[in-house]
């Protein structure tokens, strides 16, 4: 098996796939790629199944030495990748030869870049997934972010190299992140009209403390008009909860599975990948849609993604 | 006519007496997101709501619904995550109404009796003294009271293996810390309002810490992984710092 040596890990690089399902009842949240669409497309570029494990880099990428070479692709945000001394582009498959080094820098767009490798990153699965859950130190590579000197194994590489590129219009469509569409949260009616109006009126700024557990937002502070103590209940991915401070938090892939704060809204499934690309100081506005509209947006998006359209061969 | 009416009334009276405890809290279904649905069993934390949550969960686990990805039981609700490409709120509601109509059927196993050896106070329970004085008690009284009760695991949530334990003696109920700690060592035993619980991992947390257990609350290499399961009955047993070390290294 070929391997990758981590020369420098970057700010926060973890092994992620599409997450684990079915263990919510023991408190295990799905984890998985913050921008799952980029992961899926990246895996298709290199000839993997969409759910194969890859490296997720955050804001500042690392350097990776390929001992035996491989077929790779970078997707998501542009981290200014270089193969040895040559600039290489995002969203296209390419061959890396034995001994070559892929180096990434700071982001030039959103917050996450995926490095997909044919064969996938081989780690022992935990509850059926390779995804890292940082808070509990479970899954992925030793349950943690990568460090200098780590050796990552690459799974079997069986397919010949094929030049594949993400079609520019798909990249364009997926790169938007300044609007998040939401449905009503289960406690939306706890907030008065003025609070709800303010929530949708002005953009929020993404806080520095944001991570895979939650995106902290700075801006209007909706306050519940009903003074009810909330009974802890299950929380869904993308829930916008409003803690006592009033500053909303979008609960994300490594979220706590239950929570005791009212949820004013919930990001629609079709826009969750945008949340994964939000970076600190980005401005983001919420737009309300119905549950029916949210579902048809997801169906349309999925039809596009599962067609041959996004990948040019 | 009147005779038949009387018989009818008598029959229904008997019928109702044989029914389980009357259900006072209405079931409510509500979309939480475009891919999740909340089922509320009333709006109160009661053992009766807890039993209904468990029975509902048991039905869903023994007869899985296609397209359901995750179940999140809580005090008096269950959140169901589903694949919105395969199912919808409407489809799911029809199926779940049928499950809810059969809630009296699943039998729940006898609860397990679990014990959590705990070393109270000192560096393991940095909030014990303050919590005691806020209730006009000595630290020892708090420990005795905390270790005297039998708790119920209402559900697991927050992080892997974190059990929400109900049944805290009322006189120990204490609000969370004003600002949460950035770190809580694994095994920390805490109190928040009328709940008590054990932190399985080093996570940020706002519960007031009164002690620590050497038991690993979540171990991926153990069959059941989580030390506690929904419905368990739990008691805390005070142990010395020496015993803590012995058990920790065992």
Number of helices of chain A: 5
The proportion of strand residues of chain A reads 25-35%
Distance between the termini of chain A: 27 Å
The run of helices and strands of chain A is: EEHEEEEEEEEEEEHEHEEEEEEEHEHE
* Strand line-up in the sheet with most strands of chain A: 7-6-9-4-1-12-11
**Structure class of chain B:** alpha+beta
Segments of chain B where pLDDT lies below 50 for 5+ residues? Answer: 1-23
Choose one word for the global shape of chain A: globular
In whole angstroms, how far apart are the ends of chain B? 77 Å
Main sheet characteristics of chain A: 7 strands, antiparallel
Number of strands of chain A: 23
Note the total helix count of chain B.
6
Percentage of residues in strands of chain B? 25-35%
What is the tally of beta strands of chain B? Answer: 13
- Chains forming the largest contact: A-B, 44 and 45 residues
Q: Which spans of chain A have pLDDT < 50 for at least 5 consecutive residues?
A: none
Question: What would you say this structure looks like, in words?
Answer:
The complex is a heterodimer of chains A (313) and B (250). With 313 residues, chain A is of the alpha+beta class. Chain A has five helices and 23 strands. Chain A has a seven-stranded antiparallel sheet, with no helix packed on it. In chain A, a hairpin with a 7-residue loop joins strand 15 and strand 16 (214-218). Chain A starts with a strand and ends with a strand. In chain B, helix 4 (128-134) crosses helix 5 (139-148). In chain B, 42% of the residues are buried. Residues 1-23 of chain B have low confidence and may be disordered. Chain B is elongated. Chain B has 250 residues and is of the alpha+beta class. Chain B is built from six helices and 13 strands. Helices cover 28% and strands 28% of the residues of chain B. A seven-stranded mixed beta barrel of chain B has the order 5-12-9-10-7-6-13. A four-stranded antiparallel sheet of chain B has the order 1-2-4-3, with helices on one face. The interface between A and B is large, with 44 and 45 residues.
